Amino acid sequence: MEESSALTALKPTDISVGQPLPWPVYDVHGNLMFESGMIIETQHQLERLVVSAYCMDSLWNTVPAKPAAETPPAPEQKEEEARDQMIDLDSVRWNVGEKLFLQMQDNAATRFTVKMIGFLKGKSIIVSAPMSDGGAPRIREGQVFIVRAFTGKTAYAFTCAALKSVFFPYPYLHLSYPIQVRSTVIRQGTRATVKIIASITIGDPEQTAAALLNDLSTGGASGVIKKIVGEKGDTGTIKFKVRAAGNDEILTLNIILRSIEQMENGDGYRYGFQFADLDTQSRLILSAFVHQTLVEAD
Questions:
Q1: Residue 239 pLDDT greater than 90, yes or no
Q2: pLDDT for the residue numbered 173
Q3: CA 20 to 30 Å from 212, out of 9, 78, 138, 202?
Q4: Where are the domains of the chain?
Q5: Could you count the other beta carbons within 10 Å of the beta carbon of residue 284?
Q6: Residue 138 predicted with pLDDT over 70
Q7: Looking at the domain 192-296, which fold is it?
């Protein structure tokens, strides 16, 4: 396993007794515990895995499948494969004040948002002190973090350890300098899981309804509406609020209705919308929100 690969804790909903593991699992230090396909035989074994096992973080470690050797890759396939790569930290053009998202490797539920103060190549990264409930929690030396960040359309991830907490003249933290950073270009179709109330106006004659959006990308969204409005191919608008780069933004976007299907429980209909003719400002806001949501996601 690569030293800078990111791990995320297993969730109880990911695995079940009598079912094979869908992927390899590792301990907190990145050592392989079980190969994918192993059958979970007892409840005790499942509970042990939930407490102590980790899997590769899908957001930061998804590498597009390579075509068979005898099939020459198309130019666009080569480009896709190049989007996920390991790079040196000094190749990342981060600025002072850049937001970094820290996740404790041995406690995936504990996360902090910090700001980069600076770094010295080969020595340390200096960040603002992690804050919790208005105070700076004591970070033990050697505590391992998974660090994530994004700039533009690129997401970054690496692991590092706390070197030293400093409290004077202000609190800040030295993190170990990573050997390499995983760089991933987030594709346009990558969807972020959300829970956003939106207003939909669509059809001829126009109908307006409230929708609960549950996934969002820079190309479209899907959500649930209690009633039937519009038909496939209809155009209209969607209006909703997001928080991007620290600011609340209200977006009003043109949409094309692409799909309608009744929910399995009969409680409403799932709609799929494609965004159309996005202006530059709306595209930037939407992109920033989607990428930030992906970075902060579990």
A1: yes
A2: 94
A3: 9
A4: 7-56, 85-185, 192-296
A5: 16
A6: yes
A7: Thrombin, subunit H (2.40.10)
Look at residue 212 in the predicted model and tell me its pLDDT. Answer: 94
Q: What backbone torsions phi and psi does residue 250 show, to the nearest 5 degrees?
A: -100, 120
| Helices marked H in 38-101 | 43-52, 75-81
Q: What is the pLDDT of residues 51-88, one digit of tens each?
A: 566 666 443 333 333 333 434 444 443 333 335 678 88
Q: What is the DSSP letter of 76?
A: H
pTM for the full predicted model: 0.49
pLDDT band at 136 (very low <50, low <70, confident <90, very high): low
**Phi-psi category of residue 152: left, alpha or beta, with phi > 0 → left and psi -120 to 50 → alpha:** left
Q: Which amino acid is at 228?
A: I
Q: Fold for domain 85-185? A: Pnp Oxidase; Chain A (2.30.110)
Contacts of 76 (CB under 8 A, 6+ apart): none
DSSP tag of 90: G
Residue 272 to residue 90: CA distance in whole angstroms? 41
Between CA 99 and CA 96 the distance in angstroms is: 9
Tokens of 275: 């965004």
Q: Residue 143: what are its φ and ψ, rounded to 5°?
A: -60, 125
Distance in angstroms (rounded) separating the CA atoms of residues 121 and 252: 44
Angle at 192 between CA 35 and CA 179, to 5 degrees: 55
Task: Report which of 127, 125, 116, 121 is spatially closest to residue 90, judged by C-alpha positions.
Answer: 121
* Model pLDDT for residues 251-260, shown as the tens digit of each residue: 999 999 999 9
From 240, 239, 278, 274, select the one nearest 257 (Cα to Cα). 274
